[in-house]
Design brief:
GO terms for molecular function: antiporter activity; xenobiotic transmembrane transporter activity. The chain is an all-alpha fold. The protein folds into three domains: 215 residues, no CATH class; 221 residues, no CATH class; 36 residues, no CATH class. Helix content is 79%, strand content 0%. It has 21 helices and no strands. Helix 1 runs antiparallel to helix 2, helix 6 packs parallel to helix 10 and helix 15 packs parallel to helix 17.
Length: 507
């Protein structure tokens, strides 16, 4: 009897209960370790903020300004670009095209190395930028110090972010969790030594975060070296020279840039909310409450983000294997899980709305403001969870541009006008900002669910995946390196197996 995992099933049949359960097991065996990893990364950020708080209010304010600036201008961009690997790597792994899988990793690292050049220039000039827009000079000077000492983290992330996608696309998730756990375990004592014992202050907090990420990279690379070569469940092959790597960067960018925009457009909107809160009648209370609420949404986002990344890998793997209806089942199961997660978030935000803010502040006015808005945040998550998962599905089918367009329209042409109109036009105030977020999440969720559930032709997506993963990379690489006299034919690194197309035609 053949293994049912290796078989697709007919479009005319409803998946059986056992098939649904099997998909749940596959999906959550990936999601739980990735969620744990995301939590560890979140804890690392909290530890950094706590140590900044121990240094003083000025250091805390400067560190917070720097963290916000670096998230907007740097980390969101690197994470977004790296997510462009998801469709290529997951589909290549599903079709056992190891050359495309590994070559794409090399190309993404090269893309990120170029991307960090303008980002570095922005970080170096943070102080002059912030003073130009009217920020306090003392806070800005502290933020600039934190940012300068965080510069090496850009180089670290050019390896860290692609490696995470590369391993996840091969359903290798537990090692990433353990690597993160080991790195974060040393984060607290490292902060203590650098900040408290050595008295390095804000630079010490920044350096501790850089070293933590560096440790993650070293551990992941060590794991790849130990288990690489395909013999230990991880595929790692380096076949092409620098010419072969560079010649396929353009097509990969066509996937990476929309993926980046889709993620950044949503991340940036939360920062815009903080700015808008500063223009309300009592900006101190509003900004303080906004900070608590954004930390809360970041905490809740760890699970949907993991689910989105894993369903992207599952959908891509099945499409690459030529199993469109198993890919459809993976997408459907993930969306159902997302709705359940959203309902859980609505429930606890309603039940704990009067107590939650006490974990962050003793100010009764801030507590009341958070309590009034927390149920709205829960309703936002009811839309955000399936929306985030749907974006992951779109990336798995190599259609991130659709997600980017939906995020642009929902957050900036629906959410922003509603937030501004309610908060300032109708004088609803603080809660009006979050009703704007709710309207954006509803518009986004409805649009993405329509695309995924109604407009997706899974057989056509499987055919596109077959075209993408049938590219004869190793043959092209050998021609490129050994037969330079072949000219233009050798330069076309990613030629289709029948000689009629290339990666640009597929993407």
């Amino acid at each position: 009897m053949p293994d049912t995992k290796d078989l697709d099933f007919s479009t005319h049949k409803v998946p059986t209960f056992s098939q649904v359960v099997e998909e749940l097991k596959e999906l959550w065996s990936m999601v739980l370790p990735i969620t744990a990893m995301n939590w560890l990364v979140f804890i690392r950020a909290v530890v950094s903020v706590l140590f900044l708080g121990r240094l003083g209010s000025l250091e805390l304010a400067g560190g917070a300004l720097s963290i916000g600036f670096t998230n907007i201008t740097g980390y969101s961009v690197l994470v977004g670009l790296a997510s462009g690997l998801e469709p290529v790597c997951s589909q290549a792994y599903g079709s056992k095209n190891w050359d495309l899988l590994c070559l794409s990793l090399q190309r993404m690292i090269l893309i990120l190395l170029f991307a960090i050049i303008p980002i570095s220039l922005l970080w170096i000039n943070l102080e002059s930028i912030m003073i130009f827009v009217g920020q306090d000079k003392d806070i800005t000077a502290m933020a600039a110090t934190y940012t300068i000492y965080s510069l090496p983290d850009l180089l670290t992330n050019t390896l860290l972010q692609p490696l995470r996608v590369f391993l996840r696309s091969q359903q290798v998730t537990k090692p990433m969790m353990w690597c993160s756990l080991i790195a974060v375990t040393f984060h607290v004592p490292l902060n203590y030594v650098l900040v408290m014992k050595m008295g390095l202050g804000v630079p010490g907090v920044a350096m501790a975060s850089v070293v933590c990420n560096m440790n993650m990279v070293v551990l992941m690379v060590g794991y790849l070296w130990w288990r690489g070569g395909g013999g230990g469940g991880v595929v790692m092959r380096w076949r092409c020279g620098i010419g072969g790597v560079c010649s396929g960067v353009g097509p990969l960018l066509r996937v990476a840039v929309p993926s980046c925009l889709g993620i950044c457009l949503e991340w940036w909107w939360y920062e815009i909310v903080i700015v808008m809160a500063g223009y309300l009648d009592n900006p101190t209370l509003a900004v303080a409450a906004t900070g608590i609420l954004i930390q809360t949404t970041s905490m809740m986002y760890t699970l949907p983000m993991a689910l989105a990344g894993c369903v992207s890998a599952r959908v891509g793997n099945e499409l690459g294997s030529g199993k469109p209806y198993k890919a459809k089942l993976a997408a459907t199961v993930a969306l159902c899980c997302a709705f359940v997660i959203g309902i859980i978030n609505v429930t606890w935000t309603v039940i704990l709305r009067d107590r939650w803010a006490s974990l962050f502040t003793k100010d009764d006015l801030v507590k009341a403001l958070v309590a009034s808005v927390l149920p709205i945040i829960g309703l936002c998550e009811l839309g955000n969870c399936p929306q985030t998962t749907g974006c992951g599905i779109l990336r798995g089918t190599a259609r991130p541009v659709i997600g980017a367009r939906i995020n642009l329209g929902s957050f900036y042409f629906v959410g922003t006008p509603v937030a501004v109109g309610l908060a300032f036009g109708l004088n609803i105030g603080f809660s009006g900002l979050w009703f704007g977020l709710l309207s954006a999440q509803v518009a986004c969720a409805v649009s993405i669910l329509y695309v995924v559930l109604v407009r997706t032709d899974w057989e056509a997506e499987a055919m596109k995946a077959k075209m993408l993963t049938s590219l004869e990379i190793s043959t092209s690489c050998n021609r490129l390196e050994n037969n330079e006299e072949e000219g233009e034919e050798s330069k076309n690194l990613l030629r289709n197996g029948n000689g009629n197309g290339n990666l640009d035609d597929v993407l």
